[in-house]
Amino acid sequence: MIIVMKDKQAAQTVVTQAKSFQLNHVYRFENRVGFADIKNSAALSFINQDDVIEIIAEHPAAMQVSRTFHPNDTMIQTAHSQIGGDNFNLIAGPDAIESAEHVLAMGKSAKAAGATILRGGSYKPRTNPYSFQGLGEQGLKWHRIAADTLGMDMMTEVMSPADVDLVGQYTDIFQIGTRNMQNFALLKAVGQQDKPVLLKRGMSATVDEWLSAAEYIASEGNTQIMLMERGIRSFDQKYLRNTMDVSVIPVLRELTHLPILADPSHAAGVAEHVTATGLAAVAAGAQGLMIEIHDQPTKALVDGKQALTPEQMVSLFEKAQAIHDIVR
Amino acid sequence: MIIVMKDKQAAQTVVTQAKSFQLNHVYRFENRVGFADIKNSAALSFINQDDVIEIIAEHPAAMQVSRTFHPNDTMIQTAHSQIGGDNFNLIAGPDAIESAEHVLAMGKSAKAAGATILRGGSYKPRTNPYSFQGLGEQGLKWHRIAADTLGMDMMTEVMSPADVDLVGQYTDIFQIGTRNMQNFALLKAVGQQDKPVLLKRGMSATVDEWLSAAEYIASEGNTQIMLMERGIRSFDQKYLRNTMDVSVIPVLRELTHLPILADPSHAAGVAEHVTATGLAAVAAGAQGLMIEIHDQPTKALVDGKQALTPEQMVSLFEKAQAIHDIVR
Amino acid sequence: MIIVMKDKQAAQTVVTQAKSFQLNHVYRFENRVGFADIKNSAALSFINQDDVIEIIAEHPAAMQVSRTFHPNDTMIQTAHSQIGGDNFNLIAGPDAIESAEHVLAMGKSAKAAGATILRGGSYKPRTNPYSFQGLGEQGLKWHRIAADTLGMDMMTEVMSPADVDLVGQYTDIFQIGTRNMQNFALLKAVGQQDKPVLLKRGMSATVDEWLSAAEYIASEGNTQIMLMERGIRSFDQKYLRNTMDVSVIPVLRELTHLPILADPSHAAGVAEHVTATGLAAVAAGAQGLMIEIHDQPTKALVDGKQALTPEQMVSLFEKAQAIHDIVR
Amino acid sequence: MIIVMKDKQAAQTVVTQAKSFQLNHVYRFENRVGFADIKNSAALSFINQDDVIEIIAEHPAAMQVSRTFHPNDTMIQTAHSQIGGDNFNLIAGPDAIESAEHVLAMGKSAKAAGATILRGGSYKPRTNPYSFQGLGEQGLKWHRIAADTLGMDMMTEVMSPADVDLVGQYTDIFQIGTRNMQNFALLKAVGQQDKPVLLKRGMSATVDEWLSAAEYIASEGNTQIMLMERGIRSFDQKYLRNTMDVSVIPVLRELTHLPILADPSHAAGVAEHVTATGLAAVAAGAQGLMIEIHDQPTKALVDGKQALTPEQMVSLFEKAQAIHDIVR
């Protein structure tokens, strides 16, 4: 149940009262107070009715991330980026952190192309247990140094609640990967951090499942969340690794205030199609792109087949920016 | 088996010889001769080896529509449109033909917005047998008059081999709908016509199935074929009618020389998302868009929910053109 | 709108009146009269209210095939088979008719194993236009002779409205294939015939689409319809050609009175898994199975990979019968 | 690379040598030694060639769970159950543990119906963060007491690596849920335990992804793994929550030695269809079933809609046993 109060102060009073009654899952946005698990207004008889503007009984179960609770776009501010609204953000970097020199070189190219966020994995979710699993903390250190040297934000994946503190000592933005979209313990763990979280869509997650996963993060207090579409599982595995679901982008822009970005590298699976796939997402309304790059794709430790060269990235980012200017 | 000959004339000689041996499914493109169902070169011992440049034994089963057989883009020329290559084509009109006045009014708007092809259905493939099935020949007549009055090409769906002659008396371009993508008798029937065919993708057709369906048309002699992506069936029916499969567009541009267009009206299913979906397809490389319009969407006889108003179409087409200029 | 009258005679009176008012799509089942496209009871003021037991305003759009209109199971009677209800029917035969001797030999095996219906294709819906397309009328003749010789029903696929009369001169049961599930002209054509129709499910057809396709047949007057589940398109093409959708079987048994059969040969795609897949469908409630057989699978003209040998069929049918006895 | 040695002892010698060379991911099954991440036999020059029977260079990446490495069926022995091979196992219990009395009562019914494993969730993976999340350790205690009282094995879900030790103090079998199939940290954590693990299939996991997830557990040393099919995501959400993928069962029986069970409760989503769905899985070759039961389904704390009553369970288990006798 969402109660729209006459002003912020009245709303804050309601929150304070609710907490004194031990009510759980009470959240405020400006002059709105959301009671995430209360369906019956009788429980809210303590509220001063004179200050109530509107009672919204029908709202999505994933309340905090909905526009019903939070009508205007969320803006996420980091040291080097402002994400959301009409802004357009570029994230780039290697799939896996390989060495101090390599991540720095890739970061330099990324920054020159307009990226403000340097991505790279030190903990890699590999389908097979015997594949390279990432460099761990050593990778985090090199990644941090590169980001600091270049004046970029660092973003990296965290795969387990036990790693959240360690990863959080280095990164500026947590990435939650596709396979962990419904790893609820992990979502709660990053929900207790004070840093933005990028939440990738599960392989065949519905809109409701995805928004509910974001709500897990928000329910712990962290509302700095970005969503990232990365291609859904489809039926033609001969030619398509995944299908970039552009159709979900305008749907999400309508339902949620969170920024929506896209990852054409994983959607396409092969470098030749990353540009077309990425530009499609931008034209559909994505507020940013994340691209994997490598100077020598055939020698990449992970997923070289889908890595763009720095030159290809420059061309993609220029076109992406131009398309964003047309559609925003 | 594809035999690349030294020149067109030598290739034509091979074709003539092959026919004298009663060989079937022999096709020529410039200096290439394709034997669609011959896998063993021994059967081709009659060919003068001195004139052979290359023998291509490995080629897609859907040979004629592949770039292996026909490397450069197919260009389709109608009275008012040139489709394919770097061109960008706009098709618009009502879902169903409703009246002489209505199709003319919609055509006027479409033309003003830059469309050169006027679409509209007189034979409607409705899921339910008791729904309005289209006006039949009366609709074809009104459609033809509108197209002639406005100097546009007429495009309309044909649903049965028995209707091909009648529809062919009116239309400039045959449309084969999603549900009929593998209606092989119908594909053969339009394959015997001398007019372009637009072939929509089946609801969950693979790339190979789609190209093979196009090959059915080509196998009867008609190679003026356009492909149209219209959204695939996906798993989230609560928010998405279909998912526009932008990922298939760069794949097709690589595999086939046929023009690829997109239908965001059916992919999105609701007017609010048609623009974003359509622009995404253009950014991915679609060489044209087809849009359903209606001046009073809520009163449309069929699928009004997905119809854009003429004003919305103008805005979409302007942006689409701008994006096409960036990506082509 | 469905009107339940006090008895058959009263219902027939309503039908006669309705026709005198030129009402379309009026159908009767026992004492029920269904008006498929009337939603407002005002149009039915001519009905004598004293004879009305119940008015059912909410019913599926595919009215005739629903249990709302026709509560008890449809039983289909042919010369050699009774299909539906608690019966269990076996259909077997070669994928394609190959020769008079071959179809007779396969029929003999099929009959010995308990099959009463001899299947075989003379018009084959092949993905590729250059693949063997079936023997046409010659195949129909051999197929008819084999069925007559053995005292079995003949079932064969028809692919085009133009072929319905010819095929109908030979066959006892029409088969509509997966790719033609929404070939509405074909559905209407077999709907005008006086012979049972087996309607396979489309590759990714929803329940509503499938039942509406059956309704197309019924809307033309032919209500002797069987449904056949044959595997749906799924996402793991490496190991599974299709996924036998057993979950749809109990759903259909609830929604419709039409018999539901299953085709494990096409679902599995490889002979090794046909038995497990077929038995699963029976356990889920399928009222019959159709199996493709070949005495020399590796030499079959079409789809030999999925053909069981006659011996394997015997074992499958014995187990199927035993499982049906447990679950019916 | 798999090396088949002349006998167990020779194989063990190879393992000992390999460890002395610091080789990782070396596993032995009887007289076979598997080197999971070695592709070049030159690295294995230390092996005494006289004792080598066969070198298998081509094997699935998920080596340990494949029949290439471990040809015969895995048998899992617990205090009260023997799972795998020709055995058929029944698992039943409430979705969530609700009280000491309730789990005991449900366990009594389950045992009477033939179940040897008592399931129940104390940590519940709920789509929405505000839904009931389970009773935690209190639930584990009640669950343990019920299992001990009845002489049954206890099975319960674990959702986070941090909970593995605690849950392991109570449970006999760990359950990994659908959403965590690729939660690699969790898979590794249960891989270090000395208790059987039941691994449910992800919502749209391919066979290779599923087997690789099992391999994660095995790679840490725990090879007591069962797989559970629980329905895949499909495209018809109006009538089907999930589609029980019976087609995958014979495929898995061929590829892996691990026992395959099925969960018709989650596949069907509604009690009415649980029996048909469960029996289908058994007919397809599943070696056991897991069923959710509740004496008052409408009052269940979680997923009551899909719970069978104890009486319905008895009928299902009798039929399941009879079908298993036919197909095993």
From TrEMBL, chains A, B, C, D:
List the keywords (alphabetical): Transferase
- Could you tell me which Pfam families the record lists for this protein? DAHP_synth_1
Question: Could you confirm whether the keyword Transferase appears in this record?
Answer: yes
Q: What is its EC number?
A: 2.5.1.54
Q: Which GO terms describe its molecular function?
A: 3-deoxy-7-phosphoheptulonate synthase activity
| Domain DAHP synthetase I/KDSA stretches | 80-319
What is the protein named?
A: 3-deoxy-7-phosphoheptulonate synthase
What gene is this protein translated from?
aroF
